[in-house]
Structures are given as structure tokens and as C-alpha cells.
Design brief:
alpha/beta, Rossmann fold, five-stranded mixed sheet, 14 strands, globular, oxidoreductase, Pyruvate dehydrogenase E1 component beta subunit, Transketolase_C, Transketo_C/PFOR_II, magnesium ion binding
Length: 330
């Protein structure tokens, strides 16, 4: 029976976590203020009340301890879901993530699995202070042994968090924090029918003039650009990557062979980034189909600015449309 619920991304994550905990008593949630407070963004609201303090654990302010404890729990057969309060706080746990979490499955020739999910609210747009608006996903996408994904809508949030928890591989699950509670992004989610593949690139809007690829919070910007471009007679195909490592670029190659043009959009700085890899791979695989160079619309190669300046830092509608115009004019 179809069960449609109109959900924000934040509510979809909450319900997805709840369903995973109901289905598997080995699923634990741990992090700073995830219990009584329900997380600073209220994503885990009500879970400690319903599942108890033994399964929803408020931890000390120590990311290295959170990740290290999750590694030990995974060795003992649990499925920990760790929340990093803000993406800029993840770096004290970088050693545990890169040296232990990402390597144990390989190091033990598959004998030890690492079913650990690290939830990471990321990106800007919330008017926050330093270390609260960054986009470090490229760093983790470079680490062999990790899967890195990002969601942009409620359906992918609901089903994606469950798929991540069921995985025996460690997954960094990047969530666009500025979109958590956006009423404009509420969508009907069929919680009774699971999609076949959540962690794969997905064409969210078809078009013929140029391809725009994005992920996380940038998907909303790309879709807004496609709507604006349509009024000018330009047809943009928008692709949501969803999986950042390993990249699923098959649908991107197929689209570029059709449109002949690609614009890659991301809030992260451009140098040595995911958009760099996308540009290189598309040039390698689709060289004879390209009608113009691959263009990128990204954050700047600077530390994230103070809140009053972030609107000038983040890729927006005008910057994406300018890139489209440059591509079409080539």
C-alpha cells in the first residue's frame, strides 16, 4: 500500500533514522547533543526518548573519540551512526576516519566490516561563524576505502540514510544544512516503496542545450538556473550526482554526449576538488562530443568568509547562468 508523506529533508532524515532503528536493534546513534536536545538541527529529535540512552548516546565534545568509539562498536557487530555537529568540527576525527575506519576492511582482507555512517551537515547559507559553513567533501572523497554521498531532497534523505546504515562499508553522509527545514523543498515521499538505487547519479531535469551537474545544496541552485534559462529559450539538463565517491559519471557522460556542454556547480573551492575530477573525466571520455570547455561554478579558493559576505562567495543563480552563456557562446 502506498504511504505518501510530505516531508522536509530534516523530517525525512529523522523518519529514516527511526525506521532503521526499529528494524535493527544494532543501530546506534551517537554524537554531541543528539539525545536530549535532538541535535542542533533537531534531526534526531525524539529518538532518545523512544529508544533510550543506550541506543542514542550524547557524547563528549570529542570527534576523535566519537569516531574511535564507532570503530570499536562496529568491530563488535553494531551499526553506529555518528553525527558531526558541523562539518568544520570533523577534523579532530580525520585520523580515525582515514587511518582506521577506511582501512580496516582492506587490512583484514574482509574479515572485519565497518558499517559506520558519519552524518555531516555541510555547506553555507545559514549566517554562521567560522568552521560552521565549510565544504570538505573533496578531502574525504580522496580517501580509498570510504564511500561519500550527499543528498539534496527529502526522498533521497529518507531512503539514503537507511541504505547507508545497511551498508557494511563506512559512509560519509553529507547533508545540506541550509535546506534541512525549507518548506519550499517539501516533497511527497512514498515511504512504502524503496527505490532501486539511491547512491547513483540521477537526471532531475531533462534538457538539450547544456548539462549542469551538481550535488547537495547546489542542486537547488542548478534547478533554479534551469527554470530561469528556459524563459530565455535555453534547455538545461540537471544531474544530481548523489554519490561523490565512487563517482557515478555514466549518466553525466551520456548527457554531455547529447548536449555537448557541461557546467559543474559546487560550494567547495575549485582547486583539487570534485568539480576538477568531473571536468577531467568528462574531457577524457567525451572529448569529441564537447562543443566548449567544461566550466565550473564554485566557491572561491579562500577560507569561508564571514556571514555578511557569504552571498558573494556561494554559487548563485547569476553565476550559473553566466557560465551557461559563456559555454553557449563558445
Amino acid at each position: 500500500m502506498t504511504d505518501l508523506q510530505k516531508l522536509t529533508i530534516g523530517k525525512a532524515l529523522n523518519l529514516g533514522l527511526r525506521r532503521a532503528m526499529e528494524e535493527d536493534p544494532k543501530v546506534l546513534i551517537m554524537g554531541e547533543d543528539v539525545g536530549k536536545l535532538g541535535g542542533v538541527f533537531r534531526i534526531t529529535d525524539g529518538l532518545q526518548k523512544d529508544f533510550g540512552e543506550q541506543r542514542v548516546l550524547d557524547t563528549p565534545l570529542a570527534e576523535s573519540g566519537i569516531i574511535g568509539t564507532a570503530v570499536g562498536l562496529a568491530v563488535r557487530g553494531f551499526r553506529p551512526v555518528c553525527e558531526i555537529q558541523f562539518e568544520g568540527f570533523i577534523f579532530p576525527g580525520f585520523d580515525q576516519i582515514s587511518s582506521q575506519l577506511a582501512k580496516l576492511h582492506y587490512r583484514t582482507q574482509g574479515k572485519i566490516k565497518m558499517p559506520v555512517v558519519i552524518r555531516v551537515p555541510f555547506g553555507g547559507g545559514i549566517g554562521a561563524v567560522e568552521h560552521h559553513s565549510e565544504s570538505p567533501e573533496s578531502l574525504f572523497s580522496h580517501i580509498a576505502g570510504l564511500k561519500v554521498v550527499s543528498i539534496s531532497n527529502a526522498a533521497d534523505a529518507y531512503w539514503g540514510i537507511q541504505e547507508a546504515i545497511r551498508s557494511d562499508d563506512p559512509i560519509l553522509f553529507f547533508e545540506p544544512k541550509k535546506l534541512y527545514h525549507s518548506g519550499a523543498l517539501k516533497m511527497e515521499v512514498d515511504t512504502s516503496t524503496e527505490p532501486s538505487r539511491v547512491f547513483s547519479s540521477h537526471v532531475v531535469r531533462e534538457g538539450t542545450s547544456a548539462t549542469v551537474v551538481a550535488y547537495g545544496p547546489s542542486v537547488k541552485v542548478a534547478l533554479e538556473a534551469a527554470t530561469a534559462a528556459e524563459a530565455e529559450g535555453k534547455s538545461l539538463e540537471v544531474i544530481d550526482l548523489r554519490t561523490l565517491s565512487p563517482l557515478d559519471l555514466g549518466p553525466v557522460f551520456e548527457s554531455v554526449r547529447k548536449t555537448g556542454r557541461l557546467i559543474a556547480v559546487s560550494e567547495a573551492p575549485s582547486e583539487s576538488s570534485l568539480t576538477s575530477e568531473i571536468a577531467a573525466r568528462v574531457q577524457q571520455e567525451c572529448f569529441y562530443s564537447l562543443e566548449s570547455p567544461v566550466l565550473r561554478v564554485t566557491g572561491f579558493d579562500t577560507p569561508y568568509p564571514p556571514a555578511k559576505l557569504e552571498e558573494h562567495y556561494l554559487p548563485d543563480l547569476d553565476r550559473v547562468l553566466h557560465a551557461v552563456d559563456r559555454s553557449l557562446a563558445w
